Automatic annotation (TrEMBL):
Keywords: ATP-binding, Kinase, Nucleotide-binding, Transferase. Belongs to the NDK family. GO terms for molecular function: ATP binding; nucleoside diphosphate kinase activity. The gene is LOC110418797. The chain holds residues 87 to 237 of 237 of the full protein. Transmembrane segments: none annotated. One of its GO terms (biological process) is GTP biosynthetic process. The active site is at residue 117. It catalyses: a 2'-deoxyribonucleoside 5'-diphosphate + ATP = a 2'-deoxyribonucleoside 5'-triphosphate + ADP; a ribonucleoside 5'-diphosphate + ATP = a ribonucleoside 5'-triphosphate + ADP. This is Nucleoside diphosphate kinase. Residues 3-140 form the Nucleoside diphosphate kinase-like domain. It comes from Herrania umbratica.
């Protein structure tokens, strides 16, 4: 079983709406390991690099405006299966299609204000974690609960 990394980010609407604790709590309770966490005002260049695959989309300019419109909360989470599991906790891109019980299903109503980002593959998990966190901002540590989460 491969330990993966994923990059999860509370978007500016989630911060403005006071959902940071609620969102972090869902990942914490699941049992993944937090390895990086910061409140951060994203520069335009970084938003453009993060979403470079969407550059051709009509919504791209408003997406960049949205992500840079206020502070975000950047998180790195680690664990076996964390990438796909985080996507499940997050729910579908369109919050109206997202299942109840997911973050977007419970806490959002529109794709353009869907409160959270999560990497879509282990490769992108590594790429995005390295993009948003500098060396020295990530912590290697062993949670005391580790033996109670995995046999
Ligand atoms: P996800 O964030 O679920 O991985 P994505 O990678 O396809 O979704 O798109 C990145 C973000 O771009 C998404 O969270 C919100 C925005 N977006 C995607 N499709 C959109 C659309 N049709 N209209 C407006 N914004 C959209
Ligand atoms: Mg995506």
């Amino acid at each position: 079983e491969q330990v993966e990394q994923t990059y999860v980010m509370v978007k500016p609407d989630g911060v403005q709406r006071g959902l940071v604790g609620e969102i972090i709590s869902r990942f914490e309770r699941k049992g993944f390991k937090l390895t990086g966490l910061k409140l951060f005002q994203c520069p335009k260049e970084l938003a453009e690099e993060h979403y470079k695959d969407l550059k051709a989309k009509a919504f791209y300019p408003s997406l960049i405006d949205y992500i840079t419109s206020g502070p975000v909360v950047c998180m790195a989470w680690e664990g076996v299966g964390v990438v796909a599991s985080a996507r499940k906790l997050i729910g579908s891109t369109d919050p109206l299609q997202a299942e109840p019980g997911t973050i977007r299903g419970d806490l959002a109503v529109q794709t353009g204000r869907n409160v959270i980002h999560g990497s879509d593959s282990p490769e992108n998990g590594k790429r995005e974690t390295a993009l948003w966190f500098k060396e020295g901002e990530l912590c290697e540590w062993t949670p005391v609960q580790a033996p109670w989460l995995r046999e």
